[in-house]
Amino acid sequence: MAATTYERLKLHITPEKFYVEACDDGADDVLIIDRVSTEVTLSVKKDIPPSAVTRPIFGILGTIHLVAGNYLIVITKKKKIGEFFNHVIWKATDFDVLSYKKTMLHLTDIQLQDNKTFLAMMNHVLSMDGFYFSTTYDLTHTLQRLSNTSPEFQEMSLLERADQRFVWNGHLLRELSAQPEVHRFALPVLHGFITMHSCSINGKYFDWILISRRSCFRAGVRYYVRGIDSEGHAANFVETEQIVHYDGSKASFVQTRGSIPLYWSQRPNLKYKPLPLINKVANHMDGFQRHFDSQIIIYGKQVIINLVNQKGSEKPLEQAFATMVSSLGNGMIRYIAFDFHKECKNMRWDRLSILLDQVAEMQDELSYFLVDPAGAVLSNQEGVFRSNCMDCLDRTNVIQSLLARRSLQAQLQRLGVLHVGQKLEEQDEFEKIYKNAWADNANACAKQYAGTGALKTDFTRTGKRTQLGLIMDGWNSLIRYYKNNFSDGFRQDSIDLFLGNYSVDELESHSPLSVPRDLKFLALPIIMVVAFSMCIICLLMAGDTWTETLAYVLFWGVASIGTFFIILYNGKDFVDAPRLVQKEKID
């Protein structure tokens, strides 16, 4: 079986069945989904009834079971990102969620409401930017992994051979994956970021590509998913690959990022920065070793760059991480702690060179992947930098962009694009492309995990910290605060439903969506808003005497401030918490 999926599809709909027709040249296959029995079969075009309603689609994302029954999810719009190695890369930009059922009369009012909420969750995930696919190329693997495969692997379908860490619709495709004969209709979709640019230096043209692959294991939002799970999967794990294609030669440099691989949490509680808590009873070494065993198998040597603060609330995590590395005693793992905020305070970002100089020899040792036009491997990457801060977003992306530039400098010199003694930083046109691409990568990863664009992107884009950048960081921080406290529970539930961490059971006697909130927790915010509003009104509409006005202002002011502190004290009861999957709670 060729490692491709059908590119051109038509969806034919009748009251009884969905017919997905393959329209590629020479194709006669039709995927039939029975809307009553949910059975999936393979047929031919002559079986499509002429009465069917027809529309073009660009891929099947999969199926999901909700309260009302099954739903088919299809890609209805796509945008071309570019081409490399003669393969077209697409971004899915719009989807449709189609019910198998023709009516909802079989549902109670509560079931109808629950089904509406679950549909809203699915549509929320589908509205997130960053779903990519190719019908002819395996986006889930790095160039180095793809070069080291067997003939049998090359003949597998894209779904079979894909790295399951990065197939975000793996759960949705479970029914199709069980039937190899329909795999050409099963499209693996990546979540993350991809950008591609045709560039020129010294009159020599090359393609420069940046791919960030978000893991679907232990996926979620900023404060509800931290640390690792029992299988060693780290939260917000992202594999980022930088690729150069010049005159038939291909080079790549891979880095990873992921949450500090311990059992810890940081649940939102209305405080600007909730206190991170390390589990005092868990067997950290077990999960820690599982994590790095798998990382070493996949990537080789690990150079950990821990960028968290070495004082304050982040200090215990840094100390625990260092202790675990020392206790594990694995020669394949090196640990470097670099207090990013301390070293770069007062906007002294030039001091990042201290870290780059510290790891330069290690980076040369890790090397990069390089293959010549004939397919001969000239160099393998022997390991990766595994960078982290608290969120693995802002500080992490800055460091990764600097390490990637150093690797790119070496690659372009070896390929003959850069002359001896030339610096990449001096190539103004390419440097602008490079910096903006890495800043866009930062924004994409941050929006997917924290709900806003990244911080510190002014440095990534311009090479220096600016006052405007500080103001934008403040604005994004405020938006993060709001989303992390008041909308991330819904976002987390949406991701858990999409990835199959929670499965809907319409026969469940008690819906997790119907958990009642204590009335006092609904009333207190209203009281605070009313009291604060009355305080302002009293100031604007002064009474007969200032004494009277002051008395009113003091009364309503004390009421609003008092209510605010009651809410803050009981902060965890006011945040929007997940309801579908119980997240770890460490007290």
Question: What does it look like?
Answer:
This is SAC1 like phosphatidylinositide phosphatase. The protein is of the alpha+beta class and 587 residues long. The chain is built from 16 helices and 20 strands. The strands form three sheets. Strands 6, 7, 8, 9, 10, 11, 12, 13, 16, 17, 18, 19 and 20 form a 13-stranded mixed β-sheet that branches. Strands 4-3-2-1-5 form a five-stranded antiparallel β-sheet, with no helix packed on it. Strands 14-15 form a two-stranded antiparallel ribbon. The longest helix is centred in the last third of the chain and has 24 residues, at 546-569. The two termini are 52 Å apart. The model has no long low-confidence stretch (mean pLDDT 90).
For the secondary structure, the number of strands is: 20
Computed CA radius of gyration, to the nearest angstrom:
27 Å
Beta fraction: 15-25%
Biggest beta sheet attributes: 13 strands, mixed
With helices defined by DSSP (H or I, 4 residues minimum), what is the helix count?
16
Low-confidence segments: none
Helical percent range?
25-40%
Average of the residue pLDDT scores: 90
What is the CA-CA span between the terminal residues? 52 Å
Task: Indicate the overall shape.
Answer: globular
Tell me the structural class. Answer: alpha+beta
